[in-house]
Write a structure and sequence with these properties.
Among the domains are: about 200 residues, Immunoglobulin-like; about 300 residues, Peptidase M1, alanyl aminopeptidase, C-terminal domain (Zincin-like fold). A hairpin with a 4-residue loop joins strand 27 and strand 28. It is built from 26 helices and 31 strands. The chain is of the alpha+beta class. Helix content is about 40%, strand content about 20%.
């Protein structure tokens, strides 16, 4: 490859699923004492061990970035002789341990220098932990793997003035003051758990408390936030209570501890973490108030609070045997939070309105899947939802594991029905509560509970890539038959390309199909590479509605005529496919002729009819008229020709302007009709009305520029204010509103994130390079946390294709500089940014060569983390 590290990828450790062996020791109990200080924390560990088999074997514990101070066996005061153990940069090995015993180990770590945000780290004036996937080893020596379950008792000691709040997993046992201003708190978690679910929080936090009664027992619920953020915590509390009630009603799963705690921090690499009984969240998914949070933010808080709570059973009570099984907990729990959010949106609505609300949620989920996960499936990191190998586990917290994993779980319900799926879940918990298991165990429970053969369905866990189902049709008017021919294919991609002569077997694909104009609506189970289904007594050629409600995560190829797409858009009873037909009309016009996207008069008539159809909810109409994303359109173009991003962006802009011009009267009428009559409230109906009105704002802003400033000034909520600000920026009316926005919300970190994003993602800023440098030097960007990095750097690289793909390569050079700068402090965040250029081979020149040059710059850099090296190395091939 002509790089400075020709053997680095070869020497990286590759973990193979086939190499799994159980840990040779049980760890029944783990006692910990933390003497918490930001500059130097001392961790004292008492680890009980019992060998599983008769044959002696070394006891190997993981440990990184910690210093061993003391080690003894069975509470002996005399430390072990150095000849009895070996310490490396990553392990502590006891050579000849007894069959059972108690290890006493003391280590130290330095939280205030831990910028990786893995293990124990400082965040503001607080100390917090993040142990998934391999963070516990940064605090203490331990078998840091998900199949080692232990019961934990934890004592926390700290200065009471500096850290008045001391939290860990489970139930509170004791609190007491110590001499010299210190205090000690003891926690005990009665449920055995893996080390990745361990958590500690110490800080100056305010608490919102409420109780909920379940099965006759009162449970304490607590949400801990910065004191000034307490007014923004109520919605998270309400979401937690709703999650608890929903999980008990839908799956019969109770809250199993005396209390459940949520803690919010701005320094968090991900959205949140499901530590048993002590969830730690990014503030983005806890804090919500109408003045500072948008409807999308409220929806995100509800979904993520639900997701982490649902992990209490799907991930905590039943956990993963190894990290290859990550989708066992994540895919299943994403499915559960999607269902929860759908039910929340539909709550209290009429049957028709509830159906529409659920459809909007389904469209949201699938749009994200097709935009991001389909692209991942086509790239160098493509992998099955259960990979067979990985170098760096942090790189496998992917859209494939989460979102595609959720679609695979959803297919179980499609195949087995809602009642059958519940029977499978019940059997799964009956068999495996308190165990670390595999995706095959989940599939076996689903099969056995329903006497179903799901053997072939297991291939979804083994194959990477997005399957394509090509469909053709034949209508025989004389015989009155209509035949659909299905051909499924899924060629090797990504990681699979290393396997010579790989031939992938057909998948078990549940495809819901209807024939418009008939009463046929059925589920077809495809199991062969080629299959045909013939329908009888069909008197006129129907329009097929394929993969209704997106019943399988596949790409459907059917040569619809413009008239057929119009029929689907106008009359399909499946709300998802109706939306998809409109999206296909948009995409066909944009991709077919990027020089001049054209919609016919007939198509505009269809659009006009849909936009003004008051039987369709505002939320649904907002979805219908949101153009396909640049990323999704790029995938379509790349299937046919090398991608010119500038042409594609311009074509999408022209299509948007055409919708504005031809439907201007309708947009203006909608904007006026949907003017809010009452004060802001977050619910699905009101959020849908705001979504459609703000879409209308964008379409009328050129013709009526004063509308944006008027809305900005009058807004009583962040949804309408940020929509007005973003629209004004895109119309070049930015300076005064930007200054006002910053001055209003200077002390609201999450709102200032929106301020950064609005500028970084502005495609119409002719001086974007200067803008980026100005923002990077802004005082609010000093020592940026992950949220701030995402608001500026990620927003530019992933949401501003017009400038990121500059023909002089400046956008790619900016990317390389930022990946390296972030990697020096936080490899997990850097590796996520590194994935931006994975698809470089699909681009036309000069973009392809410029991207490759940027990738090579990163790969050749000294001291590159394994997280980033794996990403760019695989991208370069």
């Amino acid at each position: 490859m002509g790089n400075a590290h020709p053997t680095d990828l070869d020497t990286m450790t590759t973990h193979l699923r086939s190499d799994y062996t159980p840990f040779p020791y049980d760890i029944p109990t783990t006692d910990l004492l933390f003497d918490l200080k930001p500059e130097l924390t001392t961790v004292t560990l008492w680890l009980e061990f019992e060998r599983k088999n008769d044959e002696p074997v070394p006891l190997v514990l993981n440990g990184e970035h910690i210093t061993l101070q003391f080690i003894s066996l069975n509470n002996e005061e005399t430390p072990l002789d150095p000849s009895e153990y070996t310490v490396t940069d990553s392990t502590l090995t006891l050579h000849n341990p007894p069959e059972s015993g108690m290890l006493h180990i003391i280590t130290t770590c330095t939280p205030n220098t831990n910028t990786s945000l893995s293990g124990l780290f400082t965040t503001g004036v607080h100390l917090m932990t993040q142990c998934e996937a391999e963070g516990f080893r940064r605090m203490a020596y331990f078998p840091d793997r998900p199949d080692v379950l232990s019961t934990y008792t934890v004592e926390l000691i700290a200065d009471k003035a500096a850290f008045p709040v001391l939290l860990s997993n489970g139930n509170l046992i004791e609190t007491r003051d110590l001499p010299n201003g210190g205090h000690m708190v003891t926690w005990h978690d009665p449920f055995p758990k893996p080390s990745y679910l361990f958590a500690v929080v110490a800080g100056q936090l305010a608490c919102l408390e409420e109780t909920i009664t379940q099965d006759g027992a009162e449970k304490l619920l607590q949400v801990y936030v910065e004191p000034h953020d307490l007014p923004k915590a109520q919605f998270a509390m309400d979401s937690l209570k709703a999650s608890i009630r929903w999980d008990k009603a839908r799956f019969g799963l109770p809250l199993d501890l005396e209390r459940f705690m949520i803690v919010a921090t701005s320094d968090f690499n991900m959205g949140a973490m499901e530590n048993k009984g002590l969830n730690i969240f990014n503030t983005k998914f806890v804090l919500a108030h109408p003045e500072t949070a948008t409807d999308v933010d409220f929806e995100g808080v509800e979904a993520v609070v639900g997701h982490e709570y649902f992990h209490n059973w799907t991930g905590n009570r039943v956990t993963c045997q190894d990290w290859f099984q990550l989708s066992l907990k994540e895919g299943l729990t994403v499915y559960r939070d999607q269902e929860f959010s759908s039910d929340q949106l539909a709550e209290g609505l009429s049957p028709d309105a509830a159906t529409s609300a659920r459809a909007v949620k389904r469209i949201d989920d699938v749009a994200m899947l097709r935009t991001a996960q389909f692209m991942e499936d086509a790239g160098p990191m493509a992998h099955p939802i259960r990979p067979n190998a990985y170098e760096e586990i942090n790189n496998f917290y992917t859209m494939t594991v989460y979102e595609k994993g959720a679609e695979v779980v959803r297919m179980y319900e499609t195949l087995l029905g809602r009642d059958g799926f519940r029977r499978g879940m019940d059997l799964y918990f009956k068999r495996h509560d308190g165990q670390a298991v595999t995706c095959d165990d989940f599939r076996a429970a689903m099969a056995d509970a329903n006497q179903a053969d799901l053997t072939q369905f297991g291939r979804w866990y083994e194959q990477a890539g997005t399957p394509t189902v090509r469909v053709t049709s034949e209508f025989d008017a004389n015989a009155q038959t209509y035949t659909l021919h299905f051909a499924q294919s899924n060629p090797p991609v990504g990681i699979e390309l290393k396997e010579a002569n790989l031939i992938k077997a057909p998948l078990h694909i549940p495809l819901r199909v209807a024939l418009l104009g008939t009463d046929i609506d059925t589920l077809i189970e495809l199991k062969q590479a080629n299959e045909s289904i013939t329908f009888e007594n069909i008197t006129a050629e129907p329009t097929p509605s394929l993969n209704r409600n997106f019943s399988a995560p596949v790409s459907i190829e059917y040569d619809y005529s413009d008239d057929q797409l119009a029929t689907l858009a106008a009359t399909d009873t499946d709300a998802f496919n109706r939306w998809d037909a409109v999206q296909q009309i948009f995409a066909r016009a944009i991709v077919a002729d990027m020089l001049e996207p054209v919609f016919s008069h007939e198509q505009f008539d269809t659009f006009r009819s849909l936009l003004t159809d008051e039987s369709l909810s505002p939320a649904y109409r907002a979805q219908l008229f949101t153009l396909p994303s640049f990323s999704y359109l790029a995938q379509l173009v790349s299937k046919c020709e090398p991608l010119d991003p500038q042409k594609l962006f311009a074509a999408r802009e022209r299509a948007s302007r055409a919708l504005s011009k031809q439907l201007q009267i309708e947009w203006q009428s909608l904007y006026s009709t949907l003017e809010p009559k009452t004060a802001y409230a977050y619910n699905g109906v009101a959020a849908g009305e705001r979504a459609l009105r703000n879409l209308a704002l964008r379409h009328i802003s050129s013709a009526k520029p004063d509308t944006t400033t008027t809305q900005y000034a009058a807004a009583d909520n962040m949804t309408d204010r940020i929509a007005a600000l973003t629209t004004a920026i895109h119309e070049g009316q930015d300076e005064a509103l930007l200054n006002d926005f910053y001055n209003r919300f200077e002390k609201e970190a999450l709102v200032i994130d929106k301020w950064f994003t609005a500028q970084a993602a502005n495609p119409h800023d002719a001086n974007i390079t200067a803008t980026l440098q100005k923002l990077l030097a802004h005082p609010a960007f000093t020592n940026p946390n992950p949220n701030r990095l995402r608001s500026l750097v990620f927003a530019f690289c992933n949401a501003n294709p017009a400038h990121f793909h500059a023909t002089d390569g400046s956008g790619y050079r900016f990317w390389a500089e930022q990946v390296l700068a972030i990697d020096a402090k936080n490899p997990q965040v850097a590796s996520r940014l590194a994935r931006t250029l994975e698809q470089w081979r699909t681009y036309a020149e000069p973009y392809q060569s410029l991207m490759r040059e940027a990738l090579q710059t990163v790969f050749n850099a000294p001291n590159l983390s394994q997280d980033v090296r794996e990403i760019v190395g695989k991208a370069l091939g």
